[in-house]
Amino acid sequence: MIESLLVANRGEIARRIIRTAKRLGVRAIAVHSEVDADLPFVTEADEAVCVGPANPAQSYRNTEAILAAATSTGAQAIHPGYGFLSENADFARTVEASGLIWVGPDADAISAMGDKINARNLMAAAGVPVAPGTTEPAADLAAAVAAAADIGYPVMVKAAAGGGGMGMAVAADETALRTEYDKVRAFAERMFGDGSVLIERYFPRVRHVEVQILGLADGRVVAIGERECSVQRRNQKLVEESPSPAVSPELRSRLLAAAVRAGAAVNYRNAGTVECLLDPTSGEFFFLEMNTRLQVEHPVTELVYGLDLVEEQLRVAAGLAPTFDPDALTPRGHAIELRVNAEDPKRFLPGPGAIRTWVEPAGEGVRVDSGYVEGNTVTPFYDSLMAKLLVTAPTRAEAIERARAAVASFEIAGPKQNLPFFTNLLENPEFISGDYDTAIVARMR
To answer: A GO molecular-function term, please (predicted)?
Structure first.
């Protein structure tokens, strides 16, 4: 097993990785910005290094400072968490070139999946269903208009280098496409340094379902069940559950097999997620993207399958076998994750601030992965996620009931928070039925 691990991230995911590392006897090293010095992940690490000011480009995305911290602390490996540098192929190459262990897929897999058009083409060649769309970037507006005419409206205009729901827009007709193409291209150049745009069929009623994969040290790729991620605002997830209420045993078999093919196509190692769009009427699914990192919502898979995915990541990185039998994975019960954000519960606009009250729910089947405690301040410099509230129960109905009680007993004062939204969602007949899609939040407003 790895002996010392530098966590190149912050907040709840850094805290969560550190927890597993310490349980395994691995020395945990945190890096942090100046404004994060008092957060729990810093104090809970065995060692911590300040890597710069609040601006992520000067701290959590500062590759030189992070590598210097790894050298000064004698770190053996680096875990990037999610966001920041987690899907930066150049950083992964630099880490390995420095003689450190990279806890994630290799740089070639990250590069292959980081470009959405290249990823689509690779998946199609591997026999993974892909939605109708362009096989190369739409070089200009005329090319985008021609592609959309072939595909048929409505279309999704998408940044080829984007991710996390960013850099996407829907065009219902050519007039909208002419507006959205320029907007997405400009956004992509500004955010990702790559203005490449793809045009893809847009499905007005669709579900977002993803499969957790783990590429093992022996070369096998294992699919560890699916997660339903259709409760979203601005194409970003708010709620995840496993198993998906939309997936039958027959569909699950097809989904998992396709995800394994996707991983095998790029010789995938470590944890990753194959995201798909599911047509709830026809049962057809299409490859959306592969996230070459640990997902925010990985705990719902952990709860259903009784695993610690961070431990499995560390074992793969160390060349060790998994703790489980890949041929005997058995799901148990139902899990739901609610992303508790520092944002208002109606417009979902950020509302950072000092935390005056923070009382987490507890009890059977309740887990909270949080990045803050009472007295901390949620600053405006980073993502608004404060905590992930998770529940598990033998059935989905019982999990929903448990989630209602947990939301009611979670006390937060200071920053804005979206717990009232979850109160409404968990009473929403559409959500309760399990027959919902990615427009559910829009219909609730």
So the answer is: metal ion binding
